[in-house]
Every structure is written in C-alpha cells, then in structure tokens.
Amino acid sequence: MEKRKFGKTGLETSILGFGGFHLLEIPAEEAKYLLNRYLDAGGNYIETAANYGNGESERKIGYSVAHRRDEFILATKTAERNKMGCLESLDMSLKNLKTNYVDLLIMHGVGTMTDLEAILGPGGALEGALEAKRQGKIRHIGISMHGQPDVLIRALKEYDFDAVMTTINYYDRFNFPEIEEVLVPLALEKEVAIILMKPVGDGLLWKSAPAAFRYAFTQPAAVIVTGINNREMLEADLEYAEKFVPMTGSEMEKLFFEAPELGNYVCRQCGKCNEYCREIPIQEIFKYEGYYDRQMADGIITNAAEYALKERLRFWFGNRELAMERYRALGITQDKIKACADCVPECPYGIDILRKLSIADYKLAGRDIY
Length: 370
Hints:
By secondary structure, this protein is α/β, with parallel strands linked by helices. It folds into 2 domains: 3-248, NADP-dependent oxidoreductase domain (TIM Barrel), CATH 3.20.20; 272-364, no CATH class. The chain is 43% helix and 13% strand. The chain has an 8-stranded parallel β-barrel with strand order 3-4-5-6-7-8-9-10, surrounded by 5 helices. A two-stranded antiparallel sheet has the order 1-2. Helix 3 (83-97) packs across helix 5.
C-alpha cells in the first residue's frame, strides 16, 4: 500500500487509515479480525478517541493489536480543553490502548473560537499535551474539527501543530469550500500533516464509494481515515487503496457534473451566477446554506431510507448559527429574492436557482413556512 510523508514528523503513513468509531458497533472478536487484517495488508495508521463509547473503541484496539504496537502509528483524541483534563484523559487512553505512548494526540472536535482559546491559553489542553510529550507519552500533537474550517485556519496560524484533521470529500467540498481553498494550502505551506476524514461523507456517498475514495486519495492528504465495521467493507477499502490511480482534473469535473448525490440541487460554487446578478450574492447564499445543513434538505423526498440518512447527517457539524448570522449580514429580503424571477441566470449544473434561493432563505432566515 502506498505510503505518504506525514508532514514534518518524519513518519510515513499508509494512504488508508483505520478509524475506530465504528468499532463500537461490532463485537471485540470481529474488531480483532478487522484490525489485524488491516495491518497484514500493509495499513499502518489506527485512530480512535477517548470519547468513542467512553473508551470502548480504545479498549477494543488495545485488546486486538497491542501485541503489534511497533507495526503501526497510533492516534487518539481528547475532548478536554484544560491541562489536567487532557492529562487525565490521556492516561486513561493509554491504559485502554495497552500502550505507554501514542504517536499522535489530537485536540478533538475544536468547533468554536472559544474552545480554541481555552486549549491554547494558560492552563489549556495544549499545556497538558506538551507535558505529556516531555514525559514520552505522546510524540506529536494535532487538532480536528468538522465542517466550516475558520477555527482550524486560525489554529494553524497561532500554533505549530503537527497534524490537522478535517472533512474532505467530493460532496462537502461544495459546502465548505474554504477547506480545500484555504486550509489545505495553509497546512501544506506549514508542512502540517493533513488527515482526511469522511471520504464517503458520513455514509452519504456509499453508493459511489469507488469514486469517493479515488477522489479522497487524490487529495494532498497524508492519510485517508475511514470507519470500518465489517469484512466486506474492509476488503473493498483495501482494494481502493491498492489499485488507486489519481484522478485527473477532467475526471474530477466529470464527477462534479454527474455525481448523483450532487444532482441538480447542490451548488458547485462555480461563480457563474455572480456574473449575471449584482443585486444578490447567489453563490455566497448557497455557501451559507452548505454551512447550515450541507444542502441536504431540497424539498424533494425520494424514499424513506435516503430521507432518514440525510436527516441524520444534515446538522452533523453544528454550523447553523454561524450560517444564519452570516446570512443576516447580507440583508436579504424575500422581496429581493422574488425580484430575481425576471433575470435569474441559467445554472450550468441545471439548478433551479430561484427555487433554491427560496429554500435557502427559508432555512437561513428562519422563516415560518416555505
């Protein structure tokens, strides 16, 4: 399996990483099989978190592969924001994992500037991580979050993290364009290892898994981490990694046009509409709709399973308040949207722009009815 440089750490990671969250869903013996099969196939990056099942994921990993500790890079995460909480969380993680060190400790789900300030400030979790590093309990420090990446961008500017973990897939690139446009270039410039998570969009892209993984592997990430909870899934993911050929630019554009999950509702952020309209920032509004609910509620119900999956995932990242705040600052009114009917531009992706503007306004302005 292809190996990539893990930032400036001196480590090299397999392009396919094993995420530990979904180990909660299966018995320990099955987890043991999957983890060992992954290592046997050349994988070398296993990642979990202290709060995955209150340590259950860590315990299953310790039970399954502690005897092979020198064969893989081990990462865990802490959701604690202060020094003592971080140290206590880490000690419990080491006990659960049956090891005396982890290669990477990640500040987990840092979703607000307040969280970041607490972590970086006096008595913050970073102080705990640095103390643990001096004690040999961890080797490197990372940070993660979901969705809109302003916090991660600021984090990389304020502290020399070794790794950054973020959502990258061909669906959410259009909901959080700053990830690929700003965060990724910044991380590359600073030689911060990029850990790509959610290559299949939390399961949304499951029907298009081959294309989703190929897109993810093409990104300049050190490792693509995915949750695995059955043997069929593991073998498929291993095959995607072993047979990986990078996507060309034209292949990506074709995917953006044809991907069924994008369809004729998800804005591709191409900017063509802005060339026609100077009154309403259409592209910006649709970006904020992406923040709000990942553009998943489109007013069209196909079948119960797809509806239930989207309802489960649309608010997964918790960016609603940020989206509504930024939309309010635009000063958009329903009258302005209705006025668009006379000159609404044609979308190259077949999106009914006027209809989508009305739905976005309903969401972002908190309207009573659509």
